[in-house]
Amino acid sequence: MYNFEFRNPVKILFGKESISKLSGEIPANANILMIYGGGSIKRTGVYDQVMAALKGCTVAEFSGIEANPHYETCMEAVDVVKKKNIDFLLAVGGGSVLDATKFIAAAALYENGDPWDILAAGKPVEKALPLGAVLTLPATGSEMNGNSVITRAERQEKKAFGSPLVMPQFSVLDPECVFTLPDRQVANGVVDAFVHVMEQYLTFKVNSPLQDRLAESILTTLIEEGPKVLADRKNYDAAANFMWCATMALNGMIAVGVPQDWSTHVIGHELTAFHGIDHGRTLAIVLPGVMHVKRDNKKDKILQYGERIWGITAGNEDERIDAIIARTVEFFESLGVPCRLPDYNVPESTITKIVDRFKQSEAKIGEKQDMDYLEIEKILRDRL
Ligand code: NZQ
Ligand code: ZN
């Protein structure tokens, strides 16, 4: 196991009616900006619950954060923060709203030029406004981490940054929020959480049996609970288990002391940037290609995953790896998530555009930092 340092200060308020506890978490005299998306929270009743919990507080609103949040929209919110002297941000929504709020928190106090540099040039975040979250969609883990992914629409670029300064002070997780999710968002969430685990697990062995088994337990629970949520949206227990899986998949716990990959995400973000494909779906497209092309790097862990998660033990190593990839695809498809580029009308020319970007940046990705543009091309061509 590698050396590591680990600290996760996010307070989680989990369970039925936990939104009512909100005001106790925000400083009494705070000047709050509540940030939300396209209006689902008004239809689902979450908006009313939040407003009831914040009765007596000073609350301004900023709505219209889009899925795959835009830099341009975030900068409008930064103007509001400055004009209204906001000193606390409350995100109410899915990963997009949470990520946008994190970027707004950092951009509002950024003094070294264009805040886009935090994303595009990796400029450090030196301060950020405090923020809290009410999560309405289990998927990204954004509620308990310091990551944020923002899109610059005019340039078709999707970039990530991370800083402990934008970790929420608290996150409220009420599983009843799952009851109103459309099938598509449930499926996206299960796949996203599943692939978060895979990015931190499907690498190479470093003698970390506890991290492996934690990762495997999240995968198994998602495989059991995801279909239950899809079949019956009002199954509270399944919703609760799904929600906690998604948080545990990306709160840092299973990443400690082990190598991490993240190539599926980095390539997937390009598919969203060019075609607006939902984040979870891009991962279902790319992961099988990564497993196929990086089967040598990942051999021991793919075989362990196949045996422990799917019970696949028959055949030689190559045959087993093929069967394991096929079983993973079958699981994603069973949730209603197609796994090939043509399913999303992505033309071959997009592969060229993505590969050119990686060629120009000379980026190398993957747990061994050995995946270059040529391999990225192989991965994407595998998905045609
Ligand atoms: O905008 P509203 O009206 O709120 O509707 C949303 C949106 O249309 C709707 N929704 C949310 N909660 C709902 C609901 N509809 C009914 N009932 C509810 N309870 O769902 C739609 C999708 O929401 P979005 O927030 O975009 O989805 P998700 O949570 O999957 O977030 C995706 C974003 O997170 C980023 C992705 O790249 C993408 O931009 N990620 C963030 C990560 C992180 N911060 O750690 C890691 C992930 O790998 C990911 O990259
Ligand atoms: Zn993800």
What characteristics describe this protein?
8 strands; 14 helices; six-stranded parallel beta sheet; single chain; 47% helix; binds zinc ion; binds 5,6-dihydroxy-NADP
Number of strands: 8
Bound molecules: 5,6-dihydroxy-NADP, zinc ion
List low-pLDDT spans. Answer: none
| Morphology call | globular
What portion of residues belong to β-strands? 5-15%
In order across it, which strands form the biggest sheet? 1-8-5-4-2-3
The whole-angstrom Rg is 20 Å
Order of helices and strands: EEHHEHEHHEEEEHHHHHHHHH
The whole-number mean of residue pLDDT values reads 98
- Main sheet attributes: strand count, strand direction, barrel closure: 6 strands, parallel
What is the end-to-end distance? 37 Å
By secondary-structure content and strand pairing, the structural class works out as alpha/beta
The helix count comes to 14
* Helix residue percentage: 40-55%
Explained architecture:
This protein has 384 residues and is α/β, with parallel strands linked by helices. The protein contains 14 helices and eight strands. The strands form two sheets. It has a six-stranded parallel sheet, sandwiched between helices. It has a two-stranded antiparallel ribbon with strand order 6-7. Helix 10 runs antiparallel to helix 12. The chain starts with 10 loop residues before the first strand and ends with a helix. The model has no long low-confidence stretch (mean pLDDT 98). 5,6-dihydroxy-NADP (NZQ) binds next to helix 1, helix 4, strand 6 and helix 6. 5,6-dihydroxy-NADP (NZQ) is lined by residues 37-41, 44, 67-68, 93-97, 99, 136-137, 139-142, 145, 147-149, 177, 180-181, 185, 188, 192, 250, 265, 279.
